[in-house]
Design a protein that fits this description.
Elements lengths: L7 H8 L1 H15 L6 H14 L3 H13 L4 H9 L2 H4 L2 H16 L1
């Protein structure tokens, strides 16, 4: 039987705790900026990760976007925006998992 897939960030923290903490500090500093509200920040992050085809990150952040007030349509549109820059790859990899995660949240 296959081992359940572990969260890559948990593995990073276990294997390289100092580096993981430094990275998490950077994330906290960037996320703590005052220029964007959390809803917008989550939608931007989702679009950037979708542009790279990172379905796992997009699905992980979809519930966070929902909790921050993003609608299903805003989530969908953030992912579809990547078509103009990156083509279809991110949309086909990320749209389904993102909407499923948003609906389950």
């Amino acid at each position: 039987m296959a081992e359940p897939r572990r969260n890559p960030m948990e593995i990073f923290a276990e294997e390289a705790p100092s580096e993981a903490e430094a990275f998490n500090g950077l994330i906290r500093a960037v996320a703590g900026g005052k220029g964007l509200d959390d809803r917008t920040r989550q939608l931007l992050y989702i679009a950037m990760r979708a542009s790279q085809g990172d379905a796992a990150a997009v699905a992980a952040h979809a519930p966070m976007a929902k909790a921050a007030g993003a609608s299903r349509e805003e989530l969908r549109d953030a992912i579809l925006m990547t078509l103009m820059v990156c083509g279809i790859r991110g949309v086909v990899a990320c749209l389904g998992p993102a909407l499923s995660a948003w609906e389950a949240a």
